[in-house]
Amino acid sequence: MKPALVAKRSRKILARLAAVLVGLSPFVLLEAGLRLSGVSAGDSASDPLSGFNRNIPLFERQGAVYRTAKSREPYFAMQEFSVNKPTNAFRIFCFGGSTVHGHPYQSETSFPKWLELELNAINSNRTYQAINCGAISYASYRLAPLVKEVIDYAPDLIVVATGENEFLEDRTYQSIKGRSKLLGWAEDTLQSLRIVAVARGWVHHWKSNRGISSESRENPAKQEIRTRLDTPAGYASYHRDSEWHERVAAQFEGSLRQMVSTCHRARVPLLFVALGSNLRDCPPYKSEHRNGLSSEDEQRWQKLYDEAGAAENRRPAEALAAYKKAEQIDAEYALLLFRIARLLDQQGETQAALDYYCRARDEDICPLRITSRHEEILEGVAKETNTPLLDAAKIIADNSMDRIPGKDWYVDHVHPTIGGHQIIARGLAAQIRDIRIVAELAKWTDAERQNCYGAQIERLGTRYWAEGLHRVQWLESWARRERLWGEMKPRDAKAFLRAGICHLELGDEESARNEIKEALKRDSGLESEVHRYAELLVAEGRMRASEHLIAWFSKGNPP
User: Is 288 a domain residue?
Assistant: First the structure.
């Protein structure tokens, strides 16, 4: 090619490139100006792996109040609060999963409600509102952007109780794992532009002023979650996957740190809550053998496991010895660890049993309870960032039979009883007092608390308990619990008593009476535990349930 022709083509290319640069220059200058002005890129750039980058608000303004967006209602309790915060108001936003939401009941008996009642009772100088932002099946990474949102609503305190839903979704980052590196770079770069963030804000503001929901034109199924257990093949999709667990743990820690940073920047106090779970009466949902187990070793393991299972009821010592031999072959099979824990528990070896219950939970292939790893992460982040942490798990364990939490304080795998929610609220109120988030908080007397609790319980009506029982039954079906019905049956006197307490908690009085009757038949010494529970019911404001229990099993009316 002739030099003159090459030079001519080069000049054309340079001219076109210059025209493009001139056309882009206003956008470059605007982007630079926005960055210098401190405009944030928003949530979408903060966690591109979350799969939850839409700027969809939890609360929408409706006249003089903010209300939970209608499209969020299936996951969140309906809440509202005034746009203009009263001068004497104290706002607490409580975040977490279905436990915070109040399951298996509703927000009227969740710990945010009991906390609100207590704070208003002991300090009449201010009006306290605990806004329930507990979301069914929400993991921590979904909560982090919502914590950022509520900073705009003048919070005085944010409470976060999370960690039990981290493994519900296919957290292999479906939204980005199939894209090329070039496409990924382009998408992430676009999301990081301040111009995009400002444009998104303008669109949302325009829609809000015209009463148009930012979600109304989108498919709600794409906006909210679809857990793995929501699909017929979901349970089968869970397998041993250490790499996936590591990614989830890293994202859990990152989400906690993001919430801490959000609150620190806004100078809003933050409290973490460690919720705990049912260890004693909740067998692991799914078990698998360790990786690398040979077929010969698996056969030996299965033979020992079957022999132990056949001997459990009549020859527990022999069964325990066989299970321990099987453990030497494969110590990662969750149900084996649970059975060892149960036998140790029945023999009165409480601490050893607790250790095995925790190991069984941590080896669960379908982990629907917070694991020890995540508990350690929560504690570590709280300590490193000087964020107060209420160890509600320990509070509940300290009040449980033999200090091992079971159905006496959890109605299923993770959801506390109403009494459990109440003692979490009391723990929060005490911590708020101790670290002086609110100055000069008085203390509530037992009589005052009982009267207030009783009034709240009376407002709920009998249907409230029946709906709770229905949700527990639905949840067990959702988690494919029918596979383990045999493991869940009570096998000793204390287990029958805990089952009876759980039935009574859910309003199933006939089943409660039968289970407690069987407990006392096996061990009459448990009568003191029945009376202790009756006293707890009185303290919870459930006088009628307490009276029924005492009437059934009083000394003058033996079972």
Answer: no
Distances (CA, A) of 39 to 198, 200, 264, 303, 418: 8, 13, 18, 65, 45
What is the domain extent for residue 416? 75-169+248-283+368-460
**Domain boundary residue among 332, 362, 392?**
362
Based on the domain organization, do 441 and 376 belong to the same domain? yes
Give the CA distances from residue 131 to residues 19, 94, 195, 339, in Å, rounded to whole numbers and listed in that order.
54, 6, 33, 41
Nearest C-alpha neighbor of 156 from the set 124, 181, 197, 127: 127
Q: How many C-beta neighbours within 10 Å does residue 440 have?
A: 9
pLDDT digits (tens, 9 = 90+) for 488-517: 899 999 999 999 999 998 888 899 999 999
Band of pLDDT at residue 553, cut at 50, 70 and 90: confident
C-alpha radius of gyration, the chain, whole number = 28
Close Cβ partners of 472 (under 8 Å, ≥ 6 residues apart): 104, 411, 412, 415, 506
Place of tokens 């894209």: 179
Confidence label for 194 from pLDDT (cuts 50, 70 and 90): low
Burial class, 361, CB count within 10 angstroms (exposed 0-12 / middle 13-18 / buried 19+) = buried
Is there a domain that residue 195 lies in? no
Q: Dihedral angle at the C-alpha atoms of 189, 190, 192, 195, nearest 10 degrees?
A: 140
Q: Copy the structure tokens of residue 313.
A: 């009821």
The pLDDT value recorded for residue 44 is: 40
The amino acid present at 267, given as its one-letter code, is R
CB 297 within 8 A of CB 448: no
The rounded mean pLDDT for the chain is 85
Is there a single domain that holds both residue 378 and residue 439?
yes
Nearest-5° angle of CA 436, CA 437, CA 443?
60
Same structural domain for residues 91 and 152? Answer: yes
**Whether pTM exceeds 0.85:** no
Say if 61 falls within a structural domain. no
**Do residues 284 and 360 lie in contact, with contact meaning Cβ atoms separated by under 8 Å?**
yes
- 267, 288, 82, 80: which is closest to 157 by C-alpha? 267
Query: Does residue 273 sit in the same domain as residue 306?
Result: no
Helical H runs in 44-180?
Answer: 98-101, 111-122, 140-150, 174-177
Q: Calculate the alpha carbon distances from 103 to 96, 412, 468 in Å.
A: 12, 10, 7
| Closest alpha carbon to 467 in 167, 108, 100 | 108
